[in-house]
Design goal:
Elements: E1 2-8, E2 11-17, H1 27-52, H2 64-81
Antiparallel strand pairs: 1-2
Protein backbone atom coordinates (compact mmCIF):
# COMPACT_ATOMS: atom_id res chain seq x y z
CA UNK A 1 0.00 0.00 0.00
CA UNK A 2 1.27 3.45 -0.92
CA UNK A 3 -0.23 6.61 0.58
CA UNK A 4 0.55 9.80 -1.31
CA UNK A 5 -0.08 13.18 0.30
CA UNK A 6 0.77 16.32 -1.61
CA UNK A 7 0.01 20.02 -1.20
CA UNK A 8 -2.11 21.45 -3.99
CA UNK A 9 -2.59 25.21 -3.80
CA UNK A 10 -4.56 25.79 -0.58
CA UNK A 11 -5.41 22.16 0.19
CA UNK A 12 -3.78 18.76 0.46
CA UNK A 13 -4.68 15.71 -1.57
CA UNK A 14 -4.42 12.16 -0.25
CA UNK A 15 -4.35 9.11 -2.49
CA UNK A 16 -4.04 5.44 -1.55
CA UNK A 17 -2.85 2.85 -4.07
CA UNK A 18 -2.26 -0.88 -3.70
CA UNK A 19 0.39 -2.84 -5.56
CA UNK A 20 0.70 -6.61 -5.92
CA UNK A 21 4.02 -8.23 -6.71
CA UNK A 22 5.76 -11.56 -6.55
CA UNK A 23 9.14 -9.86 -6.05
CA UNK A 24 11.08 -10.81 -2.98
CA UNK A 25 12.37 -7.43 -1.81
CA UNK A 26 11.92 -4.86 0.91
CA UNK A 27 9.68 -1.78 1.01
CA UNK A 28 12.53 0.59 0.14
CA UNK A 29 13.28 -1.19 -3.15
CA UNK A 30 9.59 -1.36 -4.05
CA UNK A 31 9.13 2.35 -3.31
CA UNK A 32 12.14 3.15 -5.48
CA UNK A 33 10.73 1.08 -8.37
CA UNK A 34 7.31 2.75 -8.05
CA UNK A 35 8.86 6.24 -8.02
CA UNK A 36 11.02 5.42 -11.04
CA UNK A 37 8.02 4.11 -12.98
CA UNK A 38 5.86 7.15 -12.22
CA UNK A 39 8.73 9.55 -12.90
CA UNK A 40 9.13 8.15 -16.40
CA UNK A 41 5.37 7.94 -16.93
CA UNK A 42 4.71 11.51 -15.80
CA UNK A 43 7.64 12.90 -17.77
CA UNK A 44 6.54 11.21 -20.98
CA UNK A 45 2.89 12.23 -20.71
CA UNK A 46 3.75 15.80 -19.74
CA UNK A 47 6.11 16.10 -22.70
CA UNK A 48 3.55 14.64 -25.11
CA UNK A 49 0.87 17.02 -23.85
CA UNK A 50 3.07 20.13 -23.98
CA UNK A 51 4.69 19.29 -27.32
CA UNK A 52 1.68 17.87 -29.18
CA UNK A 53 -1.33 19.06 -27.11
CA UNK A 54 -2.23 15.39 -26.71
CA UNK A 55 -4.94 16.03 -24.10
CA UNK A 56 -6.95 18.16 -26.53
CA UNK A 57 -6.85 15.62 -29.35
CA UNK A 58 -10.33 14.46 -30.48
CA UNK A 59 -9.30 11.40 -32.50
CA UNK A 60 -11.47 8.62 -31.10
CA UNK A 61 -12.52 6.06 -33.74
CA UNK A 62 -11.04 3.01 -35.41
CA UNK A 63 -7.28 2.54 -35.36
CA UNK A 64 -6.60 6.26 -35.52
CA UNK A 65 -5.91 6.80 -31.79
CA UNK A 66 -3.21 4.10 -31.71
CA UNK A 67 -1.73 5.22 -35.02
CA UNK A 68 -1.51 8.89 -34.03
CA UNK A 69 -0.12 7.96 -30.61
CA UNK A 70 2.61 5.89 -32.25
CA UNK A 71 3.45 8.72 -34.66
CA UNK A 72 3.71 11.17 -31.75
CA UNK A 73 6.11 8.89 -29.89
CA UNK A 74 8.24 8.40 -33.03
CA UNK A 75 8.34 12.19 -33.52
CA UNK A 76 9.20 12.76 -29.85
CA UNK A 77 12.03 10.23 -30.05
CA UNK A 78 13.33 11.92 -33.22
CA UNK A 79 13.20 15.32 -31.47
CA UNK A 80 15.05 13.94 -28.44
CA UNK A 81 17.81 12.55 -30.69
CA UNK A 82 18.26 15.89 -32.45
CA UNK A 83 21.21 17.97 -31.25
Amino acid sequence: MVVRVRPLWNKRTREVQFYLTSLDCDARKLAQAIRLHWGIENGLHWTLDVTFNEDTCRIRTGHAPQNVSLLRRIALNALNLEQ
